[in-house]
Amino acid sequence: DLARLLARAHEAGISGPLPELGFYFKDPDGGTSAALAEQYAALLTFAERLRAQA
After folding, report:
1. Which among 28, 36, 40, 53 would be 20 to 30 A from 22, CA to CA?
2. Could you name the domain of life of the organism this protein comes from (predicted)?
3. Of residues 26 and 2, which shows the higher confidence score?
């Protein structure tokens, strides 16, 4: 899933650090919240943004 999201972000012209993907990492970088529910909500918002740009 992570690879697919990164590939889609690249296709959409999004690059650089992607704190929205912190859900996939034990200790996310970039000042993101360590709360799993917040990370998941950010991931869903990011996925929706990518879908809308398709």
Report:
1. 53
2. Bacteria
3. 2
First to last CA, the chain: 17
Task: Give the DSSP per-residue string, 3-54.
Answer: HHHHHHHHHTT--S--GGGGGGSSS--SS----HHHHHHHHHHHHHHHHHT-
Q: Model pTM?
A: 0.86
Q: Which tens digit of pLDDT belongs to each residue from 5-36?
A: 999 999 999 999 999 999 999 888 767 778 99
- Neighbouring CB atoms inside 10 A of 43's CB total 19
At 23 the pLDDT is: 94
Every domain of the chain and the residues it spans: 2-52
